[in-house]
Structure formats: structure tokens, C-alpha cells
Design a protein that fits this description.
CATH class of the largest domain: Alpha Beta
Number of domains: 2
CATH superfamily of the largest domain: Type I PLP-dependent aspartate aminotransferase-like (Major domain)
Helix content: 25-40%
CATH architecture of the largest domain: 3-Layer(aba) Sandwich
Number of strands: 17
Strand order of the largest sheet: 4-10-9-8-7-5-6
Largest sheet: 7 strands, mixed
Bound molecules: pyridoxal-5'-phosphate
Number of helices: 14
Structural class: alpha/beta
Distance between the termini: 42 Å
Strand content: 15-25%
Oligomer: single chain
């Protein structure tokens, strides 16, 4: 049996009080806290092996290169990638999606009138890069509508798929509502019309087991900082034959085979897409975070987080005028508003009770517009949260509501 309280000593930041009250951290969809294993991996890198990678002949360069490439193997194993060459280190989800948008655009394979399909649930970072690509190429952005329960409309999705659909780019879990999209099923439908499929796994990575081969997709992007690793590191996984066929985007060191002033030849995967010195420490710490996650096991984490989110919805449901967003079977995040009260006021008062939640549009303005709201209060959960955090959330919300009424 898995006890979240036993994890608290692993997360030094959680062991603190804010104005005399113990910190209750429920903003995990924005970023997660880091366990000692990750902090030590970062520290080990700088204290013991800091060096630039790949071209060095000296001892530290060899150790740093080995640690960095081992981190790539850890990520590949975690994702069940066919080979570590399919793992491109990025600075995060946003960077990974922009990378795909740019290399598709540069490849010339997106033509005027082609269609890019995204959904109403998307984070701005899975909207704006496609709008930019559409502006450059003359392609059209199509949007899968969202139903009142916060799930995507499956019939409308199938109708939107045509032989002009070149790419489906879809979030696995909504960071705003906790909706879990049936991504494998949707990818299979998109494949039937010959579209490429990109999955935004920024939220999924901390909550779901990822098997890129079983998903039947072409690209998957996530950020380290949402899975207990540092900021500034992320992963773009891409199918080798597809990445191989696409041109590089950023030029510079590392991504080349040979440079002359007349012509430059490009490096093999994954280095072709990793121009410049990467975030070496971040990659090593990300591998430590995935080891930490797998040490506990997603099969233990999932029921724990599910029970927290269910109890939270149950505990809050007695508040008069509360409105939840998203389906009852959520992952990660629980979003709500209370009638007549602004989400920002609610969140501010909860902060005074040391309960950290997020308020606002959660980088999903079109989704908020779809529901006729400017934002929500969002409580989001991670492995170290416990039923007592849920209780603190409910008490703080009730108290804040009564103060504001
Ligand atoms: C956080 C998030 C992003 C953006 O991640 P960055 O780390 O800011 O690049 C994209 N999509 C979803 C679903 C997210 O939750």
C-alpha cells in the first residue's frame, strides 16, 4: 500500500509553513515539486561531472556525455520508444510543439488548404504554434468542439477528419478540466485519413503510463517540470522515420556533421534537432525523476490520485452554488467556480490559509470562452498529496466562500 505521507520527507519544499499554517500545495498542473533524488542528481552533475558533452576527450566530458546519453535511454525506456534516437531533448512542451510546427512548415509538406486539427481543450502552446504555421503555409486550423461535460464531441471529431487533415495535435489530459481524451482511439481514426498525430503529454506524463508505440502516434511532447524534474528540460519524441525525413529547424553546433562555407551536412538523429549546448543537468535530473516515478509505480500512483480527486469533488459539492467543470472521471485537475464569487478572490483568500491553488484561464482562453467564463479555481494533485490535503482544500474553500458571501 502506498502512503503519500511517507513521501513528504522526499520533498523538502513541502515541509514548511506559511504564516503559521502548513503549506498545502495543490498547483501541480502548473508545476510539480522536486524530490531529493532529483535535487541530488542536479547537484551531483555540477559538483562532480560538469563538462560540455560529446566532443570532449577528457575524463569529465566522458562522464557528462555518458550521463546525458543514459538519461536519453531512461526516457526512451519510459516511453517505450523504439530507439533512444527518437528522443529529442527540448526545453519543454512548448518548445517541442514549436519544433514540430517549424520542421513541418520548413519541409514544404503543408500546402494551402491543408488542415491542422486541434481541440477546444488545448493549452495555448498547442494552439498558437499551429496558428503561426497556418499563417505561413495557408493551411486551415480546425477545432474539435467540446461538449458541456468537458469531453470532446466524438461525432464532430470524425466529421472533421478529411483527406485534407495533415495533422491531429491533441492534449492527452486537459490541464484546465482534467478531461482524459481517448488518444489511442482518436489517433487510429486520424491515421485512417493519413494524418500525422502529435500528443501533448504535458499533464499525462505524471499521471498515466505512456507507450508511444501502443498509442500509434507520431510525436509526443512533455515538460520535465510537470513530472518532478526541473524547469528548462523537456522531451519531444518522434517516430524515427518521420524525424529522419524532416529538416532541422535551429542551426548551430551539435546538429551538424560537417560545416564548410559552401555547404553544411546535418547530424543524425536525435542530434539534428539539438543545436547548441543542451540542458545537460536537466536531462540527468529528468532521468532521476522518471526513476523516482517508476520506483513508486504508476499502477500505485493512479488509484491514489483518482481517489484524491474524487474525494475533493465530493467534499466540495456541498458548497452552495459550486459548479465543477470537466467529466466526473478526471485526472490531475479539478476545476470549479462558485456562483457570484470571482475565482481570483476565492484563490486569494485560500492562499491566506496556505492552500495553493491556481485561478484564471490556465492558458486555455478559448476553452474558457466556450464555457462563458473568464477562469476557474483549479486544484491539481500529485503523488505527495493526501486525504488531509483534500480536507484542507474543502475547509479553505468553504471558509473563503463564507467570507465572500
Ligand atoms: C503546461 C502545459 C503546456 C506547456 O508546458 P511548458 O512547460 O510551459 O512548455 C502545454 N500543454 C499542457 C496540457 C500543459 O499542461
Amino acid at each position: 500500500m502506498f502512503h503519500p505521507d511517507s513521501l513528504i520527507p522526499d520533498f523538502p519544499i513541502l515541509d514548511q509553513s506559511i504564516q503559521g499554517r502548513p503549506l498545502i500545495y495543490l498547483d501541480n498542473a502548473a508545476t510539480t515539486q522536486k524530490p531529493m533524488a532529483v535535487l541530488l542528481a542536479s547537484r551531483y552533475y555540477y559538483e562532480a561531472i560538469n563538462s560540455n558533452i560529446h566532443r570532449g576527450t577528457h575524463h569529465l566530458a566522458r562522464l557528462a556525455t555518458e550521463a546525458f546519453e543514459n538519461a536519453r535511454k531512461t526516457v526512451a525506456t519510459h516511453l517505450n520508444a523504439a530507439t533512444p534516437d527518437e528522443v529529442v531533448f527540448t526545453s519543454g512542451t512548448t518548445d517541442g510543439i514549436n519544433l514540430v510546427a517549424n520542421i513541418l512548415s520548413l519541409s514544404g509538406s503543408i500546402k494551402p488548404g491543408d488542415e491542422i486539427l486541434i481541440s477546444t481543450l488545448e493549452h495555448h502552446s498547442n494552439i498558437v504554434p499551429w496558428q503561426m504555421l497556418c499563417e505561413r503555409t495557408g493551411a486551415l486550423l480546425k477545432i474539435i468542439p467540446c461538449q458541456d461535460d468537458g469531453t470532446l464531441d466524438p461525432a464532430a471529431f470524425l466529421e472533421l477528419l478529411t483527406d485534407r487533415t495533415k495533422l491531429l495535435s491533441l492534449t492527452w489530459i486537459s490541464n484546465s478540466f482534467g478531461t482524459v481524451n481517448p488518444v489511442a482511439e482518436m489517433a487510429a481514426a486520424a491515421k485512417k485519413v493519413g494524418a500525422l498525430v502529435l500528443i501533448d503529454a504535458a499533464q499525462a506524463v505524471a499521471h498515466l503510463r505512456i507507450d508511444v508505440q501502443a498509442l500509434g502516434i507520431d510525436f509526443l511532447a512533455f515538460s520535465g517540470h510537470k513530472v518532478y524534474a526541473p524547469t528548462g528540460i523537456g522531451v519531444l519524441w518522434g517516430r524515427a522515420e518521420i524525424l529522419d525525413a524532416l529538416p532541422p529547424w535551429r542551426g548551430g553546433g551539435e546538429m551538424i556533421k560537417e560545416v564548410t562555407f559552401r555547404k553544411t551536412t546535418y547530424n543524425d538523429l536525435p542530434f539534428k534537432f539539438e543545436a547548441g549546448t543542451p540542458n545537460i543537468e536537466g536531462a540527468i535530473a529528468l532521468a532521476a525523476a522518471l526513476d523516482f516515478l517508476n520506483g513508486i509505480g504508476l499502477s500505485a500512483i493512479q488509484p491514489h490520485e483518482k481517489s484524491l480527486i474524487r474525494s475533493a469533488a465530493e467534499a466540495l459539492s456541498s458548497i452552495p452554488g459550486i459548479r465543477f467543470f470537466g467529466p466526473t472521471d478526471r485526472a490531475g485537475a479539478l476545476s470549479f467556480n462558485v456562483e457570484g464569487i470571482h475565482h481570483y478572490d476565492l484563490g486569494t483568500l485560500m492562499d491566506q490559509m496556505a492552500v495553493a491553488v491556481r485561478t484564471g484561464h490556465h492558458c486555455c482562453q478559448p476553452l474558457m470562452a466556450r464555457f462563458g467564463i473568464t477562469g476557474t479555481v483549479r486544484a491539481s494533485f500529485a503523488i505527495y498529496n493526501s486525504q488531509s490535503d483534500v480536507q484542507a482544500l474543502a475547509e479553505a474553500t468553504e471558509k473563503a466562500v463564507s467570507m465572500l458571501r
